[in-house]
Write a structure and sequence with these properties.
The chain contains 11 helices and 13 strands. It has about 300 residues and is an alpha/beta fold. The strands form 4 sheets. The protein has a 7-stranded parallel β-sheet with strand order 3-2-1-4-5-7-11, sandwiched between helices. The protein has a two-stranded parallel sheet with strand order 6-13. The longest helix is centred in the N-terminal third of the chain and has 24 residues. The radius of gyration is 19 Å and the shape is globular.
Length: about 300
């Protein structure tokens, strides 16, 4: 296959590029930063890879490079829990997903020949947050800021179906691997200061990076997959369980909670992502026969941390 990827230099994207390259596929990396992409994917190690500079939220000649691709994976989006949610930053979070998906769909629709499939990221933030409710792919959307972002994001992706292109939307949970959210959580444990964040009762719906990459590859290659799938492991946990398991595997204490006010001081509204969770089950993903390498948290964290 030839696969175009946005967000290819990120935590998930870079692992996906490596996987597709290992399997002998050609990869088109759409990036704002060519020099960073070249460092990450040196030409001698990735001979089947092409780097195209693009402006995610602007139409342009980069869109012509989509023609002849078999599939497109759209992972691009402004980081959500990295800084305070000022009005300006919230607009960036929304635009990077809504307008970024709009330009990708535009490129796919006018491509000749057209890609057969778009695999578009979304997030479990679609469902809103709750300590008591359980959500699956059939659940209604929430009504907070992240839920609205996900609705707008998915609405743009859905337009590709009008051109007869197969669409798979993956609602991502918190992705566990060496990097991403886990990298930030490991540091306090290393310093013997680890513990649950906030109340510890909030749900933590997660997926191992390798399982997510496997799911994306299946979405690209299995023409039976269509519509929305939760990209989460079948066994979500409470934040307290996450902390205890991390502490046991790292042989560190896990009782020192990170108070909510400390995160709120740092991230403002953005702290919601960590302080309020949701219990999300991947019912359609499992019904489609997807096999998890890491269905439970202990196995996932053991593989990553050891």
């Amino acid at each position: 296959m030839k696969v175009a990827i946005t967000g290819a230099t990120g935590f998930v994207g870079s692992r996906l590029v490596q996987r597709l390259h290992q399997e002998g596929h050609r990869v088109l990396v759409l990036t704002r930063n060519a020099s960073f992409a070249q460092k990450l994917f040196p030409a001698q190690a990735f001979p089947n890879l092409e780097i195209v500079v693009y402006q995610p939220i602007a139409s342009g000649s980069w869109q012509d490079t989509i023609a002849g691709c078999d599939g497109v994976v759209n992972l691009a989006g402004e980081p959500i829990a990295e800084e305070r949610w000022t009005t300006e930053h919230k607009q960036k979070i929304l635009n990077s997903r809504k307008l970024g998906t709009q330009t990708i769909v535009e490129a796919i629709v006018k491509a000749n020949p057209q890609p057969k499939v778009l695999v578009n990221a979304s997030a479990i933030g679609f469902y809103g947050t709750s300590e008591t409710a359980t959500f699956d792919e059939t659940s209604q959307s929430g009504n907070d800021f992240l839920a609205e972002v996900c609705q707008a994001w998915e609405a743009e992706a859905n337009k590709v179906k009008d051109a007869g292109v197969r669409l798979v939307i993956l609602r991502l949970g918190i992705v566990l691997g060496m990097g991403g959210a886990l990298a930030k959580m490991i540091t306090p444990f290393k310093l013997f200061a680890g513990g649950p964040i906030g109340s510890g009762r909030q749900w933590f719906s997660w997926i191992h990076l390798d399982d997510l990459v496997n799911l994306i590859v299946q979405a690209l290659t299995n023409s039976d997959l269509k519509g929305v799938y939760n990209a989460t492991a079948p066994q979500p946990v409470r934040m307290t369980d996450l902390s205890q398991t991390m502490g046991q595997i790292m042989n560190r204490p896990s009782w020192l909670p990170v108070p909510s006010f400390a995160l709120e001081a740092l991230l403002g509204d953005g702290a919601k992502v960590v302080l309020e969770g949701q219990e999300v089950l991947p019912k359609r993903t499992m019904a489609a026969g997807f096999e998890y390498q890491y269905p439970n948290l202990r196995a996932a964290l053991s593989q990553i941390l050891q």
